Amino acid sequence: MEQGSFKVLADGSVTTPKGFRAGGLHCGLKKTTRHDLGAIVCEVPATAAGVYTTNVFQAAPLQVTRESIGSDGVLRAVLVNSGNANACTGEQGEADAYEMRSRFAEAIGVSADQVAVASTGVIGENLKMDKVRSGIDGLPAKLDGGLAGAEDFCQAILTTDLVQKMVCVELMLDGQRVSIAGAAKGSGMIHPNMATMLGFVTTDAAIGSDELQTLLRQSTDLTFNMITVDGDTSTNDMLVAMASGLAGNQSLTPQHEGWAAFADALRYVCEVLAKAIARDGEGATKLVEVQVRGAESDESAQAIAKTVIGSSLVKSAVFGADANWGRIIAAVGRAGQPVNPATVDIRLGDIVTLEQSRPVAFDEDAALEYLKGDTVVIGVDLHMGSGSATAWGCDLTYDYVRINAAYRT
């Protein structure tokens, strides 16, 4: 499928870019037999970048990954476990994260500072390191350069997620075929501010670490940082990108004629993953998109969009298919941004419910049918400027409470 300057590969994955293998297995951290330990490995030193949660309580693996990427901006692998977040576990948790890094580095024959570590799951419990060690020893044999390895990795990073989340695109740069792919997990504790989620991007483009960091941050601000499920920012949020440079293009810089095209493709990959996380929100039945236009600035529009998408009352109204635009306007008004109370328009899909801050007669039955769909778009136009933003989330259902009331048990 063509998307502007790039093409979406229906059968692509994190192993599609040249130089990458992936895999996963069940080591016993989860009660089920679903994979709970996985890795992505690059056959050459890969340029790396990362963004991390702003939660004050940051899990031990984040410290390890920051250190690995910060040493020289290069990674050879990322090792991920699910079923245990290794967060709020003190000195033992730090020691366990460093052991995971060094043991996997030895298993694949690279230096320890070329391995990133990520964990997701229950907070405040120590890792069962005997199971982790056994899993790490068996993981290299599971690494595969095809779709099967990528799917095993995607399964290994899931917690309460119902579906795997992958996307891959390709574009031409300097006459060379360049691929960008991503995988992510996230379903609950989703209100990234980086980045409750884990995300991993692979590409075979040639690009420096600083340039990759710049683009990753820009893409994150417009995608992962514009989603919410429940307003909670995790201790473990992390997004890591690795670039093998094996595509053969000239190294990307802002002066490269393909810079904008690559940036667009990377943002698309992040947006697809972000929306997949929002759609897969715990107990969710609908993807909700909030489009804010006419704000004084993009930053103001972002704040308003995230306030609306994060409103429990708006989310509940969407779940109940109730065209209660009053909840939307109330959220707009409490976002702490400049708003003219006399010029706001609101629509549900194509159905206008408020125009110039005055109620508009609309077909309630048509609105009901629209809100029963699996995707709901809420439009807000402030008529104040050129600022715009889009945020994504989901409805708030009975199942969200059920799932989180029993998360540890």
What does this entry look like structurally?
The protein is an alpha+beta fold and 409 residues long. It has 2 domains: 2-279, L-amino peptidase D-ALA esterase/amidase; 287-405, Ubiquitin-like (UB roll) (Roll), CATH 3.10.20.340. The protein contains 11 helices and 16 strands. Strands 1, 2, 3, 4, 5, 6, 7, 8, 9 and 10 form a 10-stranded mixed β-sheet that branches. A 6-stranded mixed β-sheet has the order 14-13-12-15-11-16, with helices on both faces. Helix 2 packs parallel to helix 3. The protein starts with a strand and ends with a helix. Residues 188-192 have low confidence and may be disordered.
SSE order and pairing:
Elements lengths: L1 E2 L2 E3 L11 E6 L11 E16 L7 H13 L1 E11 L5 H19 L6 E8 L6 H10 L8 H10 L8 E9 L2 E10 L12 E6 L5 H14 L15 E6 L15 H21 L7 E9 L2 H13 L1 H8 L5 H9 L11 E4 L2 E5 L2 E2 L4 H8 L3 E7 L5 E8 L3 H8 L4
Parallel strand pairs: 5-6, 9-10, 11-15
Antiparallel strand pairs: 1-2, 2-7, 3-4, 4-5, 4-10, 7-8, 8-9, 11-16, 12-13, 12-15, 13-14
Helix pairs in contact: 1-2, 2-3, 5-6, 7-9
